Amino acid sequence: MTRADLLAQLDAYQAADEHEAAMAARLREFVAAHDDCFERSLAIGHVTGSAFVIDRERRHVLLTHHGKLDKWLQLGGHADGDSNILRVALREAEEESGLDGIRPAMEGIFDIDIHRIPARGSEAEHDHHDVRYLLEAGREAPLRITSESKALQWVALDRVAERTTEESMLRMVRKVMSRYH
After folding, report:
1. Which helix (H) or strand (E) holds 167?
2. What is the CATH number of the domain that holds 81?
3. Given Cys at both, which of 49, 81, 101, 130 links 89, Cβ 3.0 to 4.6 Å?
4. Domain range spanning residue 19?
5. Residues 121-157: pLDDT tens digits?
6. By C-alpha distance, which of 37, 31, 45, 62 is closest to 134?
7. How many domains does the chain have?
8. What is Dmax (Cα atoms) for the chain?
């Protein structure tokens, strides 16, 4: 996948609501304007890839209690120069969970979010232009917590709101529920 491929995916993407549509338009403009949009060194922000990993029964999602942000979130991370954001999401999901056999649950982009990352150390506050994919995995395999998280847990979709009030997380839950339930 190239930058042009991501732009084509963004052109085809159907946002869930006006707020997400505005973020999708901003993300498209950002990718079009910055050849180095996949590089962490782009100080104003960069494209990241996230994985909303659901179980095969589509009743649970794998959440991480993020170590630095101290929030329950989906798995994901920096592209580090890789323009294939689906590959980034798959890699990050496997690295952050220890699960093998994670695969796409649908074709194309699942969700889009742009969020501010606070300044930390020598890194200035910046935006993550997050492209999210819906992935699936089995819940039977053991999870492996990495240094990036405080905990990993399969959470029933109807209980995610007990862990987070982040609208983008709740939007992804609503999308899964409307698609599969």
Report:
1. helix 167-180
2. 3.90.79.10
3. 49
4. 3-180
5. 888 999 999 999 999 999 998 899 988 889 999 999 9
6. 62
7. 1
8. 45
